[in-house]
Amino acid sequence: MYLTLQNITKIFPPGRTGSEVIAVHNVNLDIQKGELVTLLGPSGCGKTTTLRMIAGFEFPTTGNIILDGQAINSLPPHKRDMSMVFQSYAIFPHLNVFENIAYGLHVHRVPKAAIQERVDKVLDLVHLQGYGDRAPTQLSGGQQQRVALARALVMEPKVLLMDEPLSNLDAKLREEMRTEIRRIQKELNITSVYVTHDQIEAMTLSDRIVVMNQGLIEQIGTPVEIYRFPNSRFVADFIGRANFVPGAVQAQRGASLTVAALGEVVHLTCIQREFRAQEAVTLIVRPEMVRIKKTGEPFPGVIRRAVYLGDVIEYDVEVSGQLLTGLETDPHVLDLFPEGEQVTVGFAEGCIQVLPGESPQNRLSYNQVVYEHRKHFLSSSG
User: Fold this and answer.
1) pTM reported for the whole predicted model
2) Closest CA to 295 of 346, 251, 253, 227
3) Which end of the chain has the lower number of beta carbons within 10 A, N or C?
4) Could you tell me which residue, 176 or 338, shows the higher pLDDT?
5) Are 120 and 114 in contact, with CB atoms under 8 Å apart?
6) DSSP of 222-260
């Protein structure tokens, strides 16, 4: 692997609360050369701290960071051969576009002719040809972010790091820049680590996504794997939308599972886990996997909300006392079921993920993780 994080933990010393803060706990991650990996999670999950440890702005309390076969834990940022794109752009206001991009090259005493060649090349790459003489105040937010990206790329780093670089842009510009960043990353085949709390950014940009929560890695996978096969309720809820349907296993034969749920017996296929008879489970049902028809589906239901959104019709339908969200995506369907309408509901065949039912035994609490790590850390250091 090209970039490896081995058992990385970051503990911040006691602050006003008087207790240590374990920001990142036992993170293990292998990143291949040329891969774009996104660290995704809510605020405070440890994703930015992890990125800062890769960059050298923070140092791990325990664990190793290895780049291209070399341990870089003790190296300062300027010796790690990495470039970073920040949320705030960090463009020098007194320098024009060319001077901003060339700044790092001047610091490294690159010859003038080489600077001109490399800056021209990245200006072309980020579609800012002819903008070299412009001041930052003459640029739009998207153009400023392109300058920040060009300044990082002109250094020809081994790894490109990006910390929520699109969060200050409006929705349309974010969409455009997502496409541009992915195009540039693929064109250069540059190893990249991207941090965001935006699931659409992560799904659009990434070869793989690392979902983090409370300093821990919840799941690592491709966008398809993360969305279609979440391995926890947190992942299913954070990535996209999901209905969580409680049930009890009746029987299992290979990849086929029979579950009692919503007052009926459901037959599910393509199940990847093994379950015991009578085991409590949770069905993960994405809204687009809910079928709502006048007749013909197994579950009786009542429409409680119907909204036409242009490309889809969104319904809330009550089934056996539980409210499910469903989407009608057929463009030929123009008539909405009215609120209060009696309907039938079904699930798309082979698309339902089944997880063990939530219980305190199924998952360590964050406080337990903190306690166990502190006990281990103190015993090993003492």
Assistant:
1) 0.90
2) 346
3) C
4) 338
5) no
6) -HHHHHHS-SSHHHHHHSS--EEEEEEEEEEETTEEEEE
pLDDT digits (tens, 9 = 90+) for 307-355: 999 999 999 999 999 999 999 999 999 899 999 999 999 999 899 999 9
Are 3-233 and 242-362 the same fold in CATH?
Answer: no
The residue ranges of every structural domain in the chain are: 3-233, 242-362
CB atoms within 10 A of CB 142: 16
CATH topology assigned to domain 242-362: OB fold (Dihydrolipoamide Acetyltransferase, E2P) (2.40.50)
170 dihedral zone (left: phi>0; alpha: psi -120 to 50; beta): beta
Per the structure block, which two tokens stand in for 24? 């990142």
- Quickly list H helices, the chain: 47-55, 97-107, 112-125, 141-153, 171-188, 199-205, 223-228, 233-238, 366-381
Does the domain made of 3-233 have the CATH classification 3.40.50.10470?
A: no
CA distance 263 to 222: 35
Closest CA to 299 of 243, 232, 359, 239: 243
Q: Which residues pair with 300 in a beta bridge?
A: 344
